[in-house]
Design goal:
It catalyses: (3Z)-hexenoyl-CoA = (2E)-hexenoyl-CoA; (3E)-hexenoyl-CoA = (2E)-hexenoyl-CoA; (3E)-decenoyl-CoA = (2E)-decenoyl-CoA; a (3Z)-enoyl-CoA = a 4-saturated (2E)-enoyl-CoA. The chain contains 8 helices and 7 strands, in the order H-E-H-H-E-E-H-E-E-H-H-E-H-E-H. Helices cover 47% and strands 15% of the residues.
Length: 164
C-alpha cells in the first residue's frame, strides 16, 4: 500500500541520516512479514509516483545493515523487500515465494535479478517460474535466508546486529 511504501522510504532515510542508528530491521505485524501487493492498487501507486523497486534499491544501498525479520509469509513484493535487505532471518514456520507468476505477472521490483544473485540461477528459475512457496528450512539450504529460528525473529534480528 501507499502507506507502507511511504513509511519504508521515510524510515530508511531517517535511519541513514541518524548517527545513533546502528542498524535497521524490517518486520511485519501479527506474525506476517508481507503477502505482497494487492494488484488492484497498482495503478493508484503509479499515479502517486511511489514504486516498490526504488524503495528496495534504497534498502540495498543503506549505509546501515538492514535485516528482514520474516514471520509467516514473505510473498511477491514482500519477498522482494526481503531480498533487498542485507540479512534475512526467518521463523521456522515461514514461507517465501513469488506467486504472482501464477496469475501471469512477473515480479516487478527486480526480484528476478536479486534472487538468482543470491541463490543461483537454477533454484531461482524454479521459484520465479512456478510461483512455488518455499518453507524456511529449504530457504536456508538455498541461501535465501541467513538464519532460521524457532523463537521471535525480531529478537533474533536484534541479537544478530549486536554481534556485528
Amino acid at each position: 500500500s501507499l502507506t507502507v511504501l511511504q513509511a519504508l522510504e521515510d524510515g530508511l532515510k531517517r535511519a541513514d541520516a541518524d548517527p545513533s542508528v546502528k542498524a535497521v530491521m524490517i518486520c511485519g505485524e501479527n506474525g506476517k512479514f508481507s503477502a505482497g501487493a494487492d494488484i488492484r492498487g497498482f495503478s493508484s501507486l503509479k499515479r502517486r509516483g511511489i514504486a516498490l523497486g526504488p524503495i528496495i534499491s534504497l534498502i540495498e544501498r543503506s549505509k546501515k545493515p538492514v535485516v528482514a525479520a520474516i514471520e509467516g509469509i514473505a510473498l511477491g513484493g514482500g519477498l522482494e523487500v526481503a531480498l533487498g535487505c542485507h540479512y534475512r532471518i526467518a521463523h521456522v514456520k515461514a514461507w517465501m515465494g513469488l506467486p504472482e507468476v501464477t496469475i501471469g505477472l512477473l515480479p516487478g521490483a527486480e526480484g528476478t535479478q536479486r534472487l538468482p544473485r543470491l541463490i543461483g540461477v537454477p533454484a531461482a528459475l524454479d521459484i520465479i517460474t512456478t510461483g512455488r512457496h518455499v518453507p524456511a528450512t529449504e530457504a536456508l539450504k538455498l541461501g535465501l535466508v541467513d538464519e532460521v529460528v524457532e523463537e521471535n525473529t525480531v529478537e533474533a534480528a536484534i541479537y544478530l546486529v549486536h554481534k556485528m
